[in-house]
Amino acid sequence: MQKAQFPSFNMAKDVKNLIFYIFLLLIFGLLMYGIVDLGSGYSAGNQAASTEIAYNNGGFHGFLMMLGDSLSHPLSILLLQILTILLVARLFSWICTKINQPTVIGEILAGIFLGPSVLAKVLPGVSAFLFAPESLHNITILSQIGLILFMFAIGMELDIVEVKKKLKETVLISHTSTIVPFFFGMLTAYWVYPDYTNGTVPFVSFALFVGIAMSITAFPVLARIIQERGMTKSHLGTLALASAANGDITAWCVLAVVIAIAQAGTVISAMYTVLFTVAYILFMFYVVRPFMNVIGNLYHNKEVINKTFVTFIFIVLILSAFLTEVLGVHALFGAFIAGVVMPANLKFRQIMTDKVEDVSLSLLLPLFFVSTGLRTEIGLLNTVELWTMCGIFILVAIVGKFGGAALSARFVGESWHDSLRMGALMNTRGLMELVVLTIGYEMGILPPAIFVMLVLMTIVTTFMTAPLLGVIDYCFEAGKRIKARMQPPKDTVYKLLLSFGRAGSGAIMLKVAQQLFGYGKRPLEVTALHMTEGTDINPLHIEDIKAISFDPIEEEAENLNMTIQTRYEISNNTTSDIIDIVNNEGFDFLLIGSGVMLSNLPSDQEVVRHKRNFIMERLFGRMKSSESMLFGNFLKDKTQEFVDKAHCSVGVFVNRNFKSISNLLVIMYGIEDSFLLYNIERLVRKDNLAITLIDPNKVIVQHKTMMDSLNRIETTTKRFRFISGQTIDSDLFIRYDFMLIGSYSWQTLVSQGEKMISKIPSSLVVYNYVSPENVSQKTENNENEKINLS
To answer: Helices (DSSP H) in 562-686: which residue ranges?
Structure first.
């Protein structure tokens, strides 16, 4: 065994270096002091004045004054604002993820919290210092840069080729879900215009902005909701994404016209702006885009994309934004078009999106939400009439968008279930809505009270998407569930859900599943599930994540001559979502990993033993005593929610350099794990598998049913051995390459201490599920607790 290597030190050399370092500091420190002393005569007057100030104020008091001046410096204020915004935004986003809401909701709420609606009311002094009106200009500029980068990324995420393919299917849905709410928005604007604008804003501009605000769909929020619900590859998910993409392009073109009309004042004057804008779009699509496609085929990996090329891309982005800003249709439209005309090569888009999104989404966009929140003074809605008007805006937005999308989807042949879900998805607004509202507010078209109402409408319609989808699914699936319960269960296949994290562990767990579960009466059907925690996954990266995650397990399935199903999900709560999949889709067994892989830990050297203890403590918690149940408690805690809520048995795989199963050990400490005896009857069908069953407490010999099963096994194969009454010690495990054990026996085993755990081979700990029907019919022998692993 190789000895542990410790770093060696040359004491004499270290002392020599230290003496030289101190000597260097002293010599040059004295020389610099001499220079300062010689030059003090040049500024005698200033020195006297500064000495008098220091004398009058006191040294520490002067230091505090300096800190105060530094803290009030514009740069210090800006950095403090950014720090506060990022912390509060992440906190609210985290809260929203816990209730299955998009993070954009949390960021919007964070902006409102830091604005005049909450912070200024609760802590007016803090709000006045942190967000003084004169200091907000820098935040606004930075937020606009963040929006430009974000719209550029959104443009790159749109696949124009896919939009064209789905154009015939989606044009009716996308345009109906845009025109109908647009009309209702203009109708509402006509009703509220006299009372809420006082005639200070041209009606045409006001009506058009309210209409476009009602008709926007937030493509990025919609894309992430579809990812989270596993609908990306479904017919409805594809249709919704394509419709939203088509609608976004239409809405931004309409917005450009609306801004042009608002800026020019009349439709005739705006025609020149529209004509120049159309010429700009044609130039971008028919001149710039072909050129960019050629570049994309040359620059499509990180090795060839250098700083010069990235600078060129940003020049295209900024120039496009500048042109549209000068034309009077806003810089964001130019940034969006610049993203759309980027090379169609997906690898190129992934690389550029990564470079842009990390800064725009994480740093700059939260500044935009707070900038919007600072304008959102909910206190302006101080009468019943104003809150009623806000409710009307929300109702009109929902009826127009949800109704228009649902009815048009039904008209083109979708089922009522999918049509209503389409309406719920298209009703999502979020960030895109806030962008439109901010433009209208900054242009003076939307009065403050109307702006607040429309921001609240944005929050409500975005927040309601996930719950509304759940209600629709529940109503339509309720009948199916009742009908399914009335039918006899189908025992055609044995359904196993294999949930894995790291790509390599999936292949190992599949091998375990095949060797333990592949010899039953029912054919084994394996679904390999990989989940990504969190909602901010770029849609462009999903295929890469799938390839990295599933390539090893699919290769192993091919080696084992197995057919498996792969499933990728994005989740905010992986445990809860795995349980829902197991229960709703009728799986018979859930196989998960313990999340640890321990190699053999030598114990004959003090340093190695210390290292081993450190690893055990980090993985399983701080040791309370030498008899601690660290490993057992770890697995228990990890699987408790699965065991409590999953309607199937759960197996936790502990990997100890697993290769294959040829010499299997089964330990049964109590009747609670008697179900394993019946599984041995299936496992003996496997060729070249030696099985040893140890009954330390002589439980089996006391029950006739178990002895009958044991006799059947012994007559079936000569590669089975039964040992009764043998004490388990750590040296026993060296003879076996795998252990199958029930949860009760596992807890008993680990209670014997750390030394026992450090020697176990790769193992599967099975938590047996007993249905409520079986619980009520349990006999003294617990025969109804049997399960068949295969």
So the answer is: 574-584, 606-620, 630-645, 675-683
